Amino acid sequence: MAHKRILIVDDNVSFLHLLEDSIGLFCIDCQVESATDGRAALKKLAREPFDLILTDYNMPGMNGLELASVVRQTLPHTPIILMTGCKDGGALQDGILALGLEGYLQKPFDLSQIREL
Known about the structure:
By secondary structure, the chain is an alpha/beta fold. Helix content is 44%, strand content 22%.
């Protein structure tokens, strides 16, 4: 059976591991990998594709929208969900719409929201 591959990108290592473990529990046919920044995520994506990318918005070096923009150029059909703790939704919503992201999650969020998306 082929596993679905999920890449989680977040610079908060504690949150990253919590999310990785939690998704692994409710999605037993998923292979969950993680990266702590956009560059590390792009290296993983260059080696092997993923079925879903969950990325934080506010990260040093490359934010989540910048990462999504690069991914869209090389892997245009890969679903991407942005996670954010930012309260300013206007500019963020514009970026999400412009890149055709599958959605976003406002931190803190419930794991059931990931299932819905």
